[in-house]
């Protein structure tokens, strides 16, 4: 359930973008008629309408995600608050200026925020946040936790650059595909790799002593 909730805004963004991109004239007319008051100039063209509609959907979905957790009296993770702040700020700029560049920066800023949190926590505050999150379930030597934290820092820093490369080098459609499948797939592979690496360094259970033969 939590996994579905985490990926729901991304899924809705992708579905909305694909649907609107398939019929851009309808999307432009719909956005101009119903959302023109939110847009500078009051008119939305067919080229920017798909990403504008998808941006509004992801903004509403992220708000709903936070409200759902609050109503269920469940904790809202720090990164979700960061994501909400970014999507509302950059999303509003995307809609008002009908310029997709702003929302394309959102994944990069989120990835770099994750990288920065782990970097500051480990090397400035002396707190290993990854160990704090997983420590109660997993016992690992301190050097292994440090390597895992460094891997998180480097991975999300690199993923942020990868998002910008795709955003500025390819079409918006290609970027949407990368956002939905490319970056998500890379994160899943990275998480799987982390799990494999952790399993190699788990403490071995001591073997039970052999029973003495009965006389």
Strand portion: under 5%
Looking at how many chains there are and whether they match, the oligomeric state comes to single chain
Tally of helical segments: 8
**N-to-C CA distance:** 58 Å
What is this structure, in a nutshell?
The chain has 215 residues and is an all-alpha fold. It has helices at residues 2-22, 24-35, 49-71, 78-96, 101-123, 129-134, 142-169, 172-199.
Main traits of this protein?
elongated, 0% strand, mainly alpha, 215 residues, 2 domains, 8 helices
Describe the protein in words.
Pfam families: IspA. The protein is mainly α and 215 residues long. The chain folds into two domains: 99 residues, no CATH class; 102 residues. The protein has eight helices and no strands. α1 runs antiparallel to α3 and α3 runs antiparallel to α4. The relative contact order is 0.09. About 2% of the residues have low confidence.
Please specify the SSE layout and strand pairing.
Elements lengths: L1 H21 L1 H12 L13 H23 L6 H19 L4 H23 L5 H6 L7 H28 L2 H28 L16
């Amino acid at each position: 359930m939590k996994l579905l909730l985490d990926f729901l805004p991304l899924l809705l963004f992708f579905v909305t973008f694909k649907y609107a991109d398939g019929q851009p004239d309808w999307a432009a007319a719909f956005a101009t008629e119903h959302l023109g008051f939110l847009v500078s100039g009051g008119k939305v063209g067919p080229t920017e309408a798909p990403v504008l509609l998808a941006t509004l959907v992801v903004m509403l979905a992220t708000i709903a995600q936070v409200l759902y957790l609050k109503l269920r009296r469940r904790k809202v993770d720090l990164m979700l608050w960061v994501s909400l702040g970014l999507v509302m700020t950059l999303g509003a700029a995307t809609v008002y200026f009908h310029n997709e560049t702003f929302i394309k920066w959102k994944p990069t800023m989120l990835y770099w925020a994750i990288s920065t949190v782990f970097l500051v926590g480990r090397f400035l505050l002396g707190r290993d946040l990854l160990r704090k999150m997983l420590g109660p379930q997993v016992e690992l030597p301190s050097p292994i936790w440090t390597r895992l934290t460094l891997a998180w820092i480097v991975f999300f820093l690199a993923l942020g650059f990868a998002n910008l490369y795709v955003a500025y080098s390819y079409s918006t459609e290609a970027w949407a595909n990368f956002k939905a499948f490319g970056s998500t797939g890379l994160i899943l592979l990275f998480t799987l790799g982390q799990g494999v690496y952790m399993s190699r360094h788990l403490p071995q259970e001591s073997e039970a002593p052999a029973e003495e033969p009965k006389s």
